Amino acid sequence: MQSVKLKRIDASPVLKSRVYDALREAIAEMDIYSGHEPPRLDERKLAEDLGVSRTPIREAINRLEQEGLVVSYPRRGAFVVRKTKSEILEIISVWAALEGMAAKMVTENASDAEIHSMRKLFATFDGSNEAKAHIDEYSHTNIAFHQRLMQLSKCQLLIDIADSLFVHMRAIRRKTIGERDRVAESIIDHMRIIEALESRDATRSERLVREHAMYLADHVKQYVTYLD
User: Fold this and answer.
1) What dotted CATH number matches 85-223?
2) How do the domains of the chain map onto residue ranges?
């Protein structure tokens, strides 16, 4: 059973926000789709781990429930939401459109140095064999790439909209990256995207980013049976 991993936080006037941020980030770091049951949020343990009372924990859970990341059941408690296969495919399709738009904006708004910083993310990986040997590290790099791409669009509205989808995109990317040689495909796709961004080719950048996301959708359709 997955458990939320948290570090203690100090009490402060912005305690509610800090508890919410800590819990949301912990959920984002979880492997939501491993195991057969969705992860349960134990209010008592969460409060102990953070060193706070259960009141801000309940408020954070309520806020996360409003965002669709948590669901509560009478007499059972609160659980992290696990999307169905059809819901994941919908999320990926919407993400593909948003990230494609972000890529176009990166070619218009980001500096050369900022775009080059995306290439540096992969500097420690000498090809797909190196990435496969350090799959967890590469998984984090893969996620960081997509976060960086969205941030470099410099469109806060787009970033905010995408943020509501990113927890599940992050989880499904982490779960599938080691399946059926997706690491090798991922590295090739990322390098092509970066080259298009560096050349300021908005049309090609947008197309490559959309295709990259839809390759994930194709993989989920064909091989991800644990969401059926």
Assistant:
1) 1.20.120.530
2) 15-80, 85-223
By the 8 A CB rule, do 156 and 172 touch? no
pLDDT, one tens digit per residue, over 132-151 is: 777 888 889 999 999 999 99
CA distance 111 to 122: 19
pLDDT band at 226 (very low <50, low <70, confident <90, very high): confident
The CATH class that applies to domain 15-80 reads mainly alpha
Distance CA 177, CA 132 (A): 10
pTM: 0.84
Quote the pLDDT of residue 198.
97
| Number of neighbouring beta carbons within 10 Å of residue 185 | 16
Q: Any idea how long the chain is?
A: 228
Give CA–CA dist 225/203, Å, rounded. Answer: 34
Burial 7-42 (b: 16+ CB within 10 A, else e): eebeeeeebeebbbebbbebbbbbebbeeeebbebe
- Nearest partner of 152 among 108, 91, 96, 201, judged by Cα: 108
**Dihedral angle of Cα 1, 63, 146, 122, to the nearest 10 degrees:** -50
d(CA 226, CA 228): 6
Q: What whole-number distance in Å separates Cα of residue 197 and Cα of residue 189?
A: 12
**Which pLDDT score, from 0 to 100, does residue 160 have?**
93
pLDDT digits (tens, 9 = 90+) for 102-115: 999 999 999 999 99
DSSP element (H, E) containing 78: strand 77-80
